[in-house]
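User: Batch of two.

Assistant: Item 1 of 2:
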Amino acid sequence: MAVEKSQNVVSLESLPYSILQPLAIVRCTIIVVVWVIFVFTLPLSLFFCIKIVHEYKRLVVFRLGRVLQHKALGPGVVIVLPCIDEHHLVDLRTTSYDVPSQEMLTKDSVTVSVDAAVYFRTCDPVATISRNRDARVSTRQLAQTTLRNVLGTRTLSEIMSDREGIAFQAQALLDEGTHPWGIKVERVEVKDIRLPRELCRVLAAEAEASREADAKVVSANGELQASSALKEAADSIAASPAALQLRYLQTLSRISTTQNHTIVVPIPIELIRSVSKALQLRKIDPLKNTNC
């Protein structure tokens, strides 16, 4: 049935010239008659026929069903004839639309809620009026589905780390879909990404564990460097007895400057060993004398 109806529809361009010529004559006659009425009813007709179009708007006029001058009119003063002209005022300014928060499933099967904003404007008023009944509403609905499709191809980590890439991809796809309607999508912004509470807790625990591991690695590296420095200092002091004595004197000088009631004086190990050997010899000598 649909094929039969489409075959019965005949456009004016497909009609023979013998039929088109009378139709053109009728069209011109109607326009002339309306203009004559407009002139004879001046200046009263000016109040009904003159339309003022602002700089940020355009007027699309259909005269007897066809777009007048094949383009949008304005800015300035435009005369619209009664009965035969149908006019539509189109705003060219950029409009922002907040995409409602919706739950989406990512590529790795994680449910996230995303808030976004879309900025678009009308670039072709004739296409906006003639190709879509409500291009702005259609653009808003297409923005929701496009954003859902884009997020469905990304994992959770990609969504959290590459918001600009997601916005750019959504803007390109949305602009491609709205171009036949005369709509230009200038920008798409991902405002907020909300995760489930259970997933937030898991991510927080994972981040805390990662920070603790990094802190342990830093502490171990510091201890390794400190032990290496202490080993080098000990080797250098052991290689030079004079350096050891100088270190001993510096320690005594530092202790004397502090106001402490108890002063600990370090005694070199060599001195203790020599004293212990002398005491052992004195214990042995009396035994030798008694045997004699």
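Item 2 of 2:
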Amino acid sequence: MRSLLLLSAFCLLEAALAAEVKKPAAAAAPGTAEKLSPKAATLAERSAGLAFSLYQAMAKDQAVENILVSPVVVASSLGLVSLGGKATTASQAKAVLSAEQLRDEEVHAGLGELLRSLSNSTARNVTWKLGSRLYGPSSVSFADDFVRSSKQHYNCEHSKINFRDKR
């Protein structure tokens, strides 16, 4: 029998996070987690929708027995592509996220907020560590603005590597 796996935490992403819209400070109970802004909630919904679409497309392949799709990783990866890409590449990444109508800064701030919210072990009563590292050839320098913005929004580290070394 064919076994399909979609991590339950990610299945609940749309329902759990999309409903978390920021409330005025007076309405929030003391000690409760900050709610997501409308932009971040929208990006959470769209990320979950994208992940389900990817899952359904991969599930059509009869040779595939187990599938794991992380909406957060897919969305943040596309966000990084959008951040570092120019013109067509950046707009295509935003289109895959269904975020064409959002300004670039709204996309990056919203995805960053979503990542911080999901990684907040105190508010979520879970321990979930996300790591992101971008490797580039040692002969290329990352643009300072990209490094700053990718660390700020995506907590992405940057490393140079010698891709020609076969060790």
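The CA atoms of residues 50 and 97 lie 7 Å apart.
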